[in-house]
Design brief:
single chain; alpha/beta; Rossmann fold; 2 domains; 10-stranded mixed sheet
Length: about 450
């Protein structure tokens, strides 16, 4: 798919409307690059190894001397400088993460820059960023970058980790492996086969471990493994879920590792060395659109538990509502919102376009819900929870992180009687602008 896109772009760049040859693509060099993606100018930083050279003919599988390609995604409010150091010197001593100097000249590094949201902070999420990933690959192919297409790795932290999960899900037919710290998967309809390593603080105040464990469970089942079969990994303080007895050899290239630590919402201090060692040690396999044997989305996606019905009074000044997310939080969240991810995802993406009109009371909205947690956090019956509904509006966020002062939310007490019993909210729910408890 990448080569096809590159060919299409090559044709577009080589000829204008009158079939006249136009300027060739810019030559490759380490530094900040700009391309058009989704109708806007986007940036990514390219770091070529000191010994980078060209290879005239691709080598055979397992004998390819071309370098791996490593993408790295920053967190919310960050930028590409978090990975490579502050411009214009790009001194690694000014970088927040030490992955790039750890990798050194062993890989070609790509560090995309997130777009700013309505509050001016850079954030990842949505179709435009998934397409940006593909557009970067097409741009590099067009410009003749020589890399091993069987070794495309992606790393991410925080919001960048959540987006790395989404990339693995959407482009598992391109990506060989991902390593994430403090992030969770939202989507459940994935393609391809991807090895996965998750680093998670059990004391993380922003991305709670229960939510991350839901993502762990998904990847374990998707990759054809079992949630109760694991052992010590060969790298880092991690559990390896690919140690099942009599494992299918076709599953072995797609391990799932869980690396729990006590360093909060951080990229842990052991992370870079461990991640790069793990990436390098993975066997080379051809990308595939198929899930590993015995796995796949159908096996990994939790079944629907029940339906949630509610009615919303929309403020007159609200921008056009596009979509919503329903989650569970501690009941104290109603009066004291906290800077943290929700404890339980009920429905991460339901449409509100046309259902919610500014200044009007909506019809009753009914959505399917799943208590998307696998850490035993939800007990029944229980009155300890608040239903939280986030409304994403036009001009607001396209990621799971709502834009303060632009997107909207509500929180109301909810009684959980039984996992399989529908929830009907009798009161009319009123939206208010999303606050900024994190101080971003």
């Amino acid at each position: 798919m990448v080569l096809l896109l590159a060919a299409m772009l090559l044709n577009a760049c080589m000829f204008d409307d009158d079939d006249n040859v136009s300027s060739p693509a810019a030559p490759l060099a380490t530094g900040l690059q700009t391309i058009q993606s989704g109708g806007v100018e986007r940036e990514y930083y390219l770091k070529l190894p000191a010994d980078y050279g060209t290879v005239a003919t691709p080598a055979a599988l397992g004998d390819d001397t071309r370098k791996p390609l490593l993408f790295a995604y920053h967190g919310y409010t960050g930028s590409y400088e978090n990975w490579v150091g502050k411009a214009p010197d790009y001194d690694p001593n000014t970088a927040y993460y030490d992955l790039v100097p750890t990798v050194g000249d062993e890989a070609i590094v790509i560090v995309p820059n997130g777009l700013q949201d309505a509050s001016g902070e850079r954030v990842w999420g949505g179709t435009k960023d998934l397409d940006f990933f593909v557009d970067i690959l097409a741009d590099l192919d067009l410009r003749g970058l020589q890399y091993n297409p069987n070794k495309i790795f992606v790393a991410g932290h925080s919001n960048g980790a959540g987006f790395t999960h989404e990339l693995a899900c959407a482009h598992g037919d391109i990506i060989r492996a991902v390593a994430v710290a403090a992030g969770a998967l939202v989507s459940t309809d994935c393609v391809g086969s991807v090895a996965t390593l998750m680093m998670q603080g059990n004391n993380d105040p922003l991305t709670n471990a229960g939510l991350a464990r839901g993502s762990l469970r998904y990847w374990i089942l998707y990759n054809g493994w079992n949630v109760d079969e694991f052992g010590p990994a060969t790298v880092g303080p991690c559990d390896d879920y690919s140690l099942a007895a009599n494992a299918d050899p076709a599953n072995v290239p797609y391990p799932v590792l869980w690396c729990e630590h006590t360093q909060g919402h951080s990229w842990p201090d052991y992370g870079s060395a461990m991640v790069w060692s793990w990436f390098k040690g993975l066997p080379e396999v051809l990308p595939t659109p198929d899930a590993p044997p015995g796995g796949g989305s159908e096996r990994a996606t939790p079944p629907r538990d029940a339906y949630l019905t509610f009615q919303i009074q929309a403020p007159a000044e609200i921008n056009r509502p596009l979509k919503g997310a329903a989650t569970l939080r501690p009941r104290s969240y109603i009066d004291t919102p906290t800077c943290s991810a929700p404890d339980v995802i009920l429905n991460a993406n339901f449409s509100l376009d046309g259902q919610l009109v500014p200044g009007q009371l909506s019809e009753k909205i009914t959505i399917p819900i799943t208590y998307f947690t696998f850490s035993g956090g939800v007990t029944f019956p229980s009155d300890e929870w608040a239903l939280s509904v986030t409304v994403y509006v036009e001009g607001g966020s396209t990621s799971v992180i709502p834009t303060p002062g632009v997107d909207y939310e509500l929180a109301t007490p909810v009684s959980l009687i039984d996992r399989n019993l529908d929830i009907n909210i009798d009161e009319v729910l009123t939206l208010k602008p999303v606050g900024n408890p994190c101080g971003f």
